[in-house]
Write a structure and sequence with these properties.
A three-stranded mixed beta sheet has the order 1-2-3. It starts with a helix and ends with a helix. About 55% of the residues lie in helices and about 20% in strands. The chain has four helices and three strands. It has a single domain, classed as GMP Synthetase, Chain A, domain 3 (2-Layer Sandwich). By secondary structure, it is an alpha+beta fold.
């Protein structure tokens, strides 16, 4: 059960990461990255961001690239939310494959 503070911080991080990825994906044409959900640990030290990548074939590659450039993304996030948060959580990125799962279920039902 998330506290109200965890939920507010998760929404703030989700919004700001979405803006950061939008700016990053303008440079790389043909790939769209969106933040599906962010879950923050109770001590607000770790934020797990689940990403939806289009096209889904490049999903693993993009998530691996983002995990490697974790420090620069965290720095950019820190610049954006420095007045709302005292400590910027450590970021971890995971691939959200729920859309592929839904598409697979639809194909099976047809």
């Amino acid at each position: 059960m998330d506290s109200t503070r965890q939920s507010k911080i998760a929404r703030l991080i989700q919004k700001e990461l979405g803006d950061i990825f939008l700016k990053m994906t303008k440079e790389t044409r043909g790939v769209l990255v969106s933040v599906s959900i962010v879950r923050v640990s109770p001590d607000l030290g770790i934020a797990k961001a689940y990403l939806s990548v289009f096209p889904s074939a490049k999903g693993e590659e993009i998530v691996e690239l983002l995990n490697k450039s974790n420090k620069s993304i965290r720095f950019e996030l820190g610049n954006r939310v420095r007045y709302q948060l005292r400590i910027i959580p450590e970021l971890r990125f995971y691939l959200d494959d729920s859309l592929d799962y839904i598409e697979n279920i639809d194909n099976l039902l047809k």
